[in-house]
Design a protein that fits this description.
This protein is of the alpha/beta class and 384 residues long. The protein has 16 helices and twelve strands.
Length: 384
């Protein structure tokens, strides 16, 4: 597997997905190797998985040239094959456009099947259109990767449609396999950070801090709730390119006393905060799946999500949370107030969530589906 995002340096959904899938495949006695960016500290890699880390750029590349950094990284990822002592994969599984060239090259060198999971696309990320500059470049790489891959995976029906129509992929070459979750880990009451946690008037959210994640909408909603819920506080965990602008939004809306930007959170900090929260909000303007939603539900926190993409699919089909129109701070404030003021509603949402997680989103289930798709792809390509 090739990934641009991988724990512990990233809190993104892709990082959690690759980590969980790799560990579950290894537990099922498959040989699994992950190529990932560097990490200087002691990484907590999945048991049974060999993780090789490469340089992700060269010092003379301009910081803003993301495509150049991707090309440099692909060069170093291919060189990681030298660390495998002759071992070769049957399947090369790519999880981000930045690693398209590395995935294609390694597939050619080893005669392996090439599979790509599209966790999102640039066209969807920009509301169906492509601005000039980098978005057009990314879309071109995504389109080439989709054409070059033997098959593709998307994490929701919304993303399947986006890959088929936006990247012009034959529908029979794309399947839907959702993100998974280790529900026991997120729910474990015996963890030290959870043992003494009590629900407080606290709204919590976390992830990569980017404009499309909609955290600025949550900031506005907190301002609207100031008078009706004076003791309510909000914590936003994570880092990203929109962090400075988000802090400015907090200052302009005069909610610095109510909204905290916590930065990177360790597993213990994340788990402890989740189990103290009255609700978790996912205010994304765009979200192909939203693994944070599963993590919140597993932690027992009532959920409020924007009605967009995979988030809407997840909640609409299970009644495991409340939804609001993306970007509408007033609707979001109303949903938060309902959960705070109606404990029976909060309990009902939690009951729906527990049943849904057990049935659909265990990593064992996701890994089994992924292996079946690998095998189906290999059989189909062998017949050509």
């Amino acid at each position: 597997m090739l990934t641009w995002f991988f724990p512990p340096q990233e809190m993104s959904g892709i990082a959690a997905h690759v980590h969980g899938l790799a560990g579950s495949l290894a537990a099922a006695e498959h040989d699994v190797v992950v190529f990932a960016p560097p990490w200087r500290g002691g990484a907590s890699d999945p048991a049974g998985v060999k993780v090789c880390r490469a340089v992700t750029g060269l010092p003379w590349l301009p910081d803003e040239d993301e495509a150049a950094h991707a090309a440099s990284t692909c060069h170093h990822f291919v060189a990681l094959m030298g660390e495998l002592d002759g071992w070769q994969p049957d399947v090369v599984h790519v999880h981000d456009w930045r690693l398209a060239w590395a995935g294609s090259t390694i597939s050619d060198l080893t005669d392996a099947t090439l599979v790509t999971t599209f966790h999102g696309t640039e066209r969807v990320r920009h509301g169906g259109h492509l601005p000039t500059g980098l978005p057009g470049t990314v879309h071109s790489v995504e389109s080439w990767l989709a054409l070059r891959s033997d098959s593709a995976i998307a994490t929701s029906a919304f993303m399947v449609r986006a890959v088929v129509s936006g990247l012009e992929v034959d529908a029979e070459r794309v399947t839907q396999i959702p993100n998974g979750i280790d529900a026991e880990w997120w729910a474990r009451a015996q963890h030290p950070s959870v043992q003494h946690a009590q629900r407080a008037p606290l709204v919590f959210t976390w992830g990569r801090v980017q404009y499309e994640k909609g955290f600025q909408v949550l900031v506005r909603a907190m301002g609207l709730l100031r008078h009706s819920h004076d003791d309510l506080r909000c914590i936003i965990g994570g880092t990203g390119s929109y962090l400075a602008e988000l802090q400015s939004r907090i200052d302009l809306d005069r909610v610095a006393d109510r909204v905290e930007l916590a930065g990177f959170l360790t597993d213990e900090e994340l788990l402890g905060t989740l189990h103290r929260a009255s609700c978790v909000v996912i205010p994304s303007l765009y979200e192909p799946f939203g693994i944070v939603a599963l993590e919140a539900l597993a932690g027992g926190a009532p959920l409020v999500v924007a009605e967009t993409g995979g988030l809407a699919e997840l909640v609409r089909s299970t009644e495991a949370g409340l939804m609001f129109e993306p970007g509408d701070a007033e609707q979001l404030a109303s949903c938060i107030a309902r959960i705070l003021d109606e404990p029976v509603l909060a309990q009902r949402l939690g009951d729906h969530a527990s049943a849904m997680l057990t049935e659909r989103y265990s990593w064992e289930t996701i890994a089994t589906s992924t292996v079946a798709w690998y095998e189906a792809t290999r059989t189909r390509t062998a017949d050509r």
